[in-house]
Amino acid sequence: MTPLLDVDDLRVTYPTRTGEIKAVRGVSFSLGRERLGIVGESGSGKSQTGRAIMGLTPPQAVVTARTLAFDGKDMLKMTPRERRALRGKRIAMILQDPKYSLDPVMTIGSQIVETLRAHENVARAEARDRALSMLEAVQIRDPKRVFNLHPHEVSGGMGQRAMIAMMLIAGPELMIADEPTSALDVTVQLDVLGILDRLVSTHGMGLIFISHDLRLVSSFCDRVVVMYAGKVVEQLPASELHNAEHPYTRGLLDCMPKIGADRHPLPVLARKAEWAT
């Protein structure tokens, strides 16, 4: 069976005055209609991998791959117009913080309607009804009120749900969620994860869940990709994360607090040069 997404030897390089910055170095994985977690420290290349898949890297970035295919189609050979038609319609991305991702001068409802009408030929009244239904689907209690609010008028959790609604309105087959719960409190995190979980199970959507929280990924995802210095150092089932063999993954796991254990001071990850080669 052809995977929904096939990534082979993905590389993202930024030329600078002092040389090249290799943000992503030979990342490879495939994704079906499942939940794939990508974990690693800040700067490990997680977000750059997601943005390269979406085609959202800055103009100066050089993106190459042996294969970067969605539903069997090579995305690197698509025209900019074909890539734009794919982005938002069949592939969507939830960014980290709604404060910086939502347009501050547009109401939440108008942003969701604009997203839908960019990909489907629907009347404004129908688009409004579908936007209200989607806001309700992401568990916003008073969708008509929130529809007319600006992003600064809602809480972080409500803004993140509005962002999810905007990304889901066109019915994507692949969702890339870049730390969608990092700015939220624990109870709201669970609500957002529940929404994403239902979308994967009921709509057959593929999900790439980018996070630095190993405990969260191990309980939520089906498989885990561990990245360090722009490379994949380990791939394994999420349920087997506690049996990881790479010393970097073991180090990350060892640094997590453990209830009831005397761990003062907490262990510090000792990085080795050979991990980055």
Structural account:
This protein is an alpha/beta fold and 277 residues long. The protein has a domain at 1-84 and 218-256: 3-Layer(aba) Sandwich (Rossmann fold). Helix content is 35%, strand content 24%. It is built from ten helices and eleven strands. The protein has helices at residues 46-54, 80-86, 98-101, 108-119, 124-137, 143-147, 156-168, 186-203, 214-220, 247-254; strands at residues 5-16, 19-31, 35-39, 62-64, 67-70, 73-74, 91-94, 174-178, 206-211, 223-228, 231-237. The chain has a six-stranded mixed β-sheet with strand order 7-8-9-3-10-11, with helices on both faces. Strands 1, 2, 4, 5 and 6 form a five-stranded antiparallel β-sheet that branches. Helix 4 (108-119) crosses helix 5, helix 4 runs parallel beside helix 7 (156-168) and helix 5 packs across helix 7. It is globular. The two termini are 33 Å apart. The mean pLDDT is 88.
Strand content: 15-25%
Structural category is alpha/beta
The radius of gyration over CA amounts to 19 Å
Helical proportion, percent range: 25-40%
Q: Unreliable segments (pLDDT under 50, ≥5 consecutive)?
A: none
**How far from one another are the termini?**
33 Å
Strand order of the largest sheet: 7-8-9-3-10-11
